[in-house]
Amino acid sequence: MNISSLLARSAQRQPERPALLRGDRVLHDYRQLAARVAALAGHLRTRCAVAPGDRVAIYSANCPEYLEAQHAIHWCGAVAVPVNYKLHAKELAYVLENSGAAVVCTSPELHDGALAAGADPKRLPVLGSAAWEAAAQGAPIALHDAAPEDVAWLFYTSGTTGRPKGVALTQRNLLAMTMAYFTDVDEVDARDAMVYAAPMSHGAGLYNYVHMLRAARHVVPASGGFDPAELADLARSVGRLSLFAAPTMVHRLVAHLQRSGLGGQGFKTIVYGGGPMYVDDLRRAIAVMGQKFVQIYGQGESPMTITALAREQIVDTDHPRWLDRIASVGVAHACVQVRVADAHDRDVPTGEMGEVLVRGETVMAGYWNNPEATAATLRGGWLHTGDIGSLDADGFLTLRDRSKDVIISGGSNIYPREVEEVLLLHPRVSEVAVVGERDDDWGEVVVAFLVADGEPVPDAELDALCLDHIARFKRPRHYRWVESLPKNAYGKVLKTELRRW
Question: Which CATH architecture does the domain made up of 410-500 adopt?
Answer without folding.
Answer: 2-Layer Sandwich (3.30)
